[in-house]
Specification:
The complex is a heterodimer of chains A (424) and B (309).
Chain A (H helix, E strand, L loop, with lengths): L1 H13 L2 H29 L6 E7 L3 H14 L4 H14 L1 H9 L3 H4 L2 E6 L4 H5 L6 E5 L3 H10 L9 E4 L4 H25 L5 H4 L2 H15 L5 H14 L1 H15 L2 H7 L4 H29 L8 H29 L3 H18 L10 H7 L3 H13 L8 H21 L8
Parallel strand pairs in A: 1-2, 1-3
Antiparallel strand pairs in A: 3-4
Helix pairs in contact in A: 1-15, 2-12, 2-15, 3-8, 8-9, 9-11, 12-15, 12-19, 13-15, 13-16, 13-17, 15-16, 16-19, 16-20, 17-18, 17-19, 19-20
Chain B lengths: L1 E10 L2 E11 L4 E5 L6 H8 L7 E6 L2 E2 L5 H4 L2 E4 L11 H11 L4 H14 L15 H13 L5 E5 L7 H16 L3 E6 L2 H7 L2 E6 L2 E7 H6 L4 E8 L4 H10 L4 E5 L2 E7 L5 H10 L4 E7 L3 H9 L6
Parallel strand pairs in B: 3-8, 3-9, 6-7, 7-8
Antiparallel strand pairs in B: 1-2, 1-4, 4-5, 9-10, 11-13, 11-14, 12-13
Helix pairs in contact in B: 3-4, 3-5, 5-6, 9-10
The chains are: A mainly alpha (424), B alpha/beta (309).
Chain lengths: 424, 309
């Protein structure tokens, strides 16, 4: 029985041009246009979106340690012009110099890490600063100890302290990646320099940038316009399904087909349930088509299949519940006003708040937070989060909002659905 | 037996059905005759449990359907006045859907669909989309959808509205066959000749009330005290009408579009007198018809207005 009702509703949808155009053709066209038209702006703008703040606290300096280094070299039997030449060489190739002047100073690296230098700082206070993603603490006599170890027989390798702010794992991991690479680089250079290779040849900043991009790839990839608008249109156009299904249901009442269905012994609850399942199924198909379109036409690589399935199924269930509620309201009012109001006003406002056309947080963080409570906004945020590479756990607060809305819609449908005919 | 007991229905402040009582016994064919807006469709909706009466009750086999409408519903085949079909589906798909919601499946469903398509003469158009059908074909399919589950009672609400005479004749013939096969029928119409042709017992309804009921003969008996004579003449002079009025003071006489109609007691034999008066007034009568009372006359007699007014 339920299957017959769903199958009939599917046939009505498929054999009407208007829903097909609005539910499938329009979003695909819009995705294509918006992705290509706004792609260059959006994709370029996003490059600076992930920038970690690094504080380097340098408790030593070349100036402070130069005399000690000179004294050490003299003790090692190096004097006169060779000593001066060696000092110059050490000054230009010591790890901190390479880090500050080469690695962190490159244009590529500046996109990812903003550096602030301080001589002395209260580490406890600095670590509580939410704006700082990482603190590199350089101990006293670091340069001296490095030279002793890298070029002479000392095995007392200088220690560094790195504090990472775990509030933002992505930014922290960028800093960690760069500094680990740097540290490994100068450690290796210390060993290799003994074999006659210069540190500069080993510690290339290019390799470090590549490493950062690998970190981003693994942890938080950039969201290009194609992904953004595929998701934006996907969540927006699913909201048109309830109005179509409620519209068909009202037609059934007007044509007296609904009376026939009731006379056949179909309970109103079962009928309402069929609308719910049809809405869910159509929404799932619609979203799947759009995701496949993004994949095969726009070349999007959707990641976290498990998360995507959870989100898409949850949102589809919401669309089904909203379809049942809208049908109930139309049966109660016996007019298309509810569906028209929803299509004309609610979808526009929800899409704006949910960020279907642009990231609402660019205008206002408050509006962005409100948008996360709209079903489409919550779904969009959840999809984009996992598409950035974030952990699956980030979707649950968004999904909770969806499930609450599902429960509200289902309860209202059950309470208000007309138990007898609609003619009264 | 399906019974309506003092059924009334109010929509907001308007009372559209007022204390109607009627009965439908197994194998009976009952007509509900009345002009548009008389309350026939609302009455049918209450009888078929789709609309809750404001007061009164509907009994099915002497039990109220108020709390258990399902007991009645599956035994009913209802043909609404509207074309209650899906225009985007084919004839067969429509029948298959309605058959399935009635619980038919498999071989039984397929056989029922084919039988119904044969009965309504649409077997050769079964795969065509309904929206491409003529009005008459849609009406036939509308009836077919109510027959799939082989109901014991068929309720038809104005099933021939707005169709061509050929389709109308086909539908009436189909319904007549169903009645002959023993189907219990409740047929509403404002076409008195349809009700007269199909029904044994007739309820006449006007302004939400049953104003008369009985067999065709019993109803016609209500107006059989009168006879109606229609005259056509070369010219209808005022003097002739005046002479007739003087000669038959109890008769009702009126002239409309060159036809003079005289309504008077059937006990009188007026033709010879009428022809004599015509000759005296130099009026040449070209035709004279003495009319037997019809249900139309019954309605006119009871309400003072024509059935299709």
């Amino acid at each position: 029985m339920l299957f017959s009702l769903i199958s009939k509703q599917m046939k009505m949808l498929v054999r009407n041009k208007q829903p097909l155009i609005i539910l499938l053709v329009m979003p695909l066209v819009l995705i294509t246009i918006l992705s290509s038209a706004l792609g260059s702006i959006m994709d370029g703008g996003n490059e600076a979106a992930i920038q970690a703040n690094l504080l380097i606290v340098d408790n030593s300096s070349w100036a402070q340690e130069e005399s000690a280094i000179k004294q050490f070299l003299e003790q090692e039997g190096i004097k006169g012009p060779p000593l001066d030449a060696m000092l110059t060489q050490f000054k230009s190739s010591e790890p901190l110099e390479l880090l500050n002047s080469t690695i962190l100073a490159s244009d590529e690296m500046k996109k990812y890490i903003a550096v602030d230098y301080k001589k002395t700082v209260d580490l406890k206070t600095a670590r509580q600063d939410e704006k700082i993603d990482g603190i590199l603490n350089i101990p006293v006599d670091f340069r001296l100890n490095y030279i002793k170890t890298a070029y002479f027989k000392s095995t007392n390798f200088p220690d560094l302290s790195l504090y990472l702010n775990q509030d933002n794992e992505i930014r922290a991991s960028i800093i960690e990646s760069v500094l680990t690479d740097w540290q490994r680089g100068y450690t290796q250079s210390a060993i290799l320099s003994k074999a006659g290779l210069s540190p500069q040849e080993i510690m290339s900043n290019v390799r470090t940038v590549e490493k950062i991009e690998q970190v981003l790839e693994v942890n938080e990839r950039m969201i290009p316009a194609s992904i953004y608008y595929t998701v934006g249109m996907l969540v927006m156009f699913a909201l048109y399904i309830p109005a179509f299904l409620a519209g068909f249901a009202l037609q059934e009442v007007q044509w007296k087909v609904y009376d026939r269905i009731l006379l056949a012994g179909v309970s109103p609850v079962l009928y309402s349930l069929s609308i719910f399942f049809t809405g869910t199924f159509v929404a799932f198909i619609q979203q799947t088509v759009m995701l496949l379109f993004g994949m095969f036409v726009l070349g999007i690589e959707w990641i976290s299949l498990e998360g995507m399935v959870i989100i898409i199924v949850s949102y589809s269930v919401f669309v089904g519940a909203l379809s049942a509620l809208m049908t109930t309201l139309q049966f109660r009012t016996k007019a298309e006003g509810i569906a028209n109001l929803f299509n004309g006003l609610f979808i526009t406002v929800f899409s704006f708040l949910g960020g279907s056309f642009f990231n609402i947080r660019d205008i206002s963080e408050t509006l962005g937070k409100i948008g996360d409570f709209t079903p489409n906004g919550a779904t969009m945020s959840a999809i984009l989060s996992i598409q950035k590479g974030q952990d699956l756990s980030v979707i649950w607060p968004f999904m909770l909002a969806i499930y609450v809305l599902v429960i509200v819609c289902v309860l209202l449908s059950i309470v208000f659905f007309p138990r007898r005919g609609v003619a009264e | 037996m399906l019974q309506a007991i003092n059924l009334s229905k109010k929509f907001k402040t308007k009372e559209v059905v007022r204390e109607i009582s009627m009965e439908l016994s197994a194998g009976e064919s009952v007509g509900l005759l009345g002009p548009n807006g008389a309350g026939k469709s609302t009455t049918i909706s209450m009888l078929s449990s789709l609309v809750q009466p404001t007061s009164g009750d509907v009994l099915w086999n002497e039990k109220s359907i108020a709390k258990n409408p399902e007991s009645l519903r599956k035994t009913l085949g209802v043909v609404p006045q509207e074309i209650a079909l899906y225009p985007e589906l084919s004839a067969r798909e429509n029948l298959a859907f309605f058959g399935r919601v009635y619980g038919l499946k498999g071989e039984l469903l397929e056989t029922s669909i084919t039988d119904v398509l044969k009965k309504i003469g649409l077997l050769d158009r079964q795969k065509d989309i309904v929206k491409t059908f003529s009005g008459g074909m849609k009406r036939r399919l509308n009836i077919g959808a109510a027959l799939l589950h082989r109901p014991s009672i068929l309720i038809m609400d104005e099933p021939t509205v707005g169709i061509d005479p050929q389709s109308r004749a086909y539908i009436l013939e189909t319904v007549k066959q169903l009645v002959e096969e023993g189907m219990t029928l409740l047929y509403t119409s404002h076409y008195m000749e349809e009700v007269e042709m199909l029904c044994d017992k007739i309820y006449i309804m006007d302004q939400g009330k049953i104003i008369a009921y009985g067999t065709k003969e019993e109803l016609k008996g209500l107006v059989s005290e009168n006879q109606t004579i229609e005259l056509k003449a070369n010219i209808l002079k005022a003097n002739f009408e005046k002479s007739l009025s003087e000669q038959f003071p109890k008769a009702t006489i009126h002239i409309e579009e060159e036809i003079l109609t005289i309504s008077m007691s059937k006990n009188e034999e007026p033709l010879a007198t009428i022809f004599a008066l015509a000759a005296a007034n130099n009026v040449v009568i070209t035709s004279a018809i003495v009319k037997v009372p019809s249900l139309e006359d019954v309605f006119l007699h009871l309400t003072g207005k024509a059935l299709r007014d």
